[in-house]
Design a protein that fits this description.
By secondary structure, the protein is α+β, with helices and mostly antiparallel strands. It has a domain of 129 residues: Chalcone isomerase (3-Layer(bba) Sandwich). Helices cover 26% and strands 26% of the residues. The chain contains 4 helices and 8 strands, in the order αββββαββββαα. Strands 3-4-5-6-7 form a 5-stranded antiparallel beta sheet.
């Protein structure tokens, strides 16, 4: 009787461990997975600033004529922790990966600073999600400017330009890994950089 009980408990442990391993390889755990309302409207992750900080760019602009009147923004990129760990092992993003791009103003005037720029007020929040439930496995969201930040956002339409840009110009899948030096090294090592990049 004791031997059977031990065997069942051991088997249950192995099944749970295997399930956990498979989940870690194929999708973000439920606590980190993207949440939606109205089917496809992404809920802004409340704790994204506790996620893995990938990189920050200053004054980056994809428009041919950037807005010169505004001080350059910092673009801070965060990704959910389990997806980051999976990428570091494989060079690929698992299903349910969520990136949050946070824009903040910048200034050079403050406290003892005598040069360079530092981050200031929030300007806006966007997100990119790898999710097999969407048409081609990816969706893009804009939660709006800081003064009208939304708790959820619907997927941006194809004609918004995000999908085309992220298809043509990214180094790994639909992500700008070329701007994240640590991750680019991993992608090159794992040979997951797009051919011709």
């Amino acid at each position: 009787m004791k031997k059977t009980s031990f065997t069942i408990a051991g088997l249950a442990f192995l099944v749970a461990a295997a399930s956990s391993l498979v989940q870690g390889q194929s999708a973000a755990p439920a606590s980190e997975a993207p949440r939606y309302v109205k089917g496809t409207n992404l809920v802004r992750p409340p704790d994204y600033r506790e996620w893995v900080f990938i990189s920050s760019g200053l004054g980056m602009d994809y428009n041919p004529t950037p807005n010169a009147r505004e001080s350059p923004s910092f673009g801070n990129v965060f990704v959910n922790p389990s997806s980051y760990r999976e990428f570091m092992k494989t060079g690929k993003w698992p299903d349910k990966t969520t990136f949050v791009l946070e824009f903040r103003g910048s200034t050079s005037e403050g406290s003892i600073n005598k040069g360079g720029r530092f981050q200031t007020q929030l300007r806006g929040v966007e997100a990119e999600v790898k999710d097999s439930t969407f048409k081609d496995g990816w969706a893009f969201f804009n939660f709006g400017p800081a003064n009208a930040l939304q708790d959820s956002a619907e997927p941006l339409p194809d004609d918004a330009g995000c999908r085309e840009c992220h298809t043509k110009n990214t180094a790994v899948e639909r992500t700008f890994v070329q701007f994240y030096p640590t991750l680019l090294e991993v992608a090159r090592k794992m040979k997951t950089v797009k051919p011709g990049f």
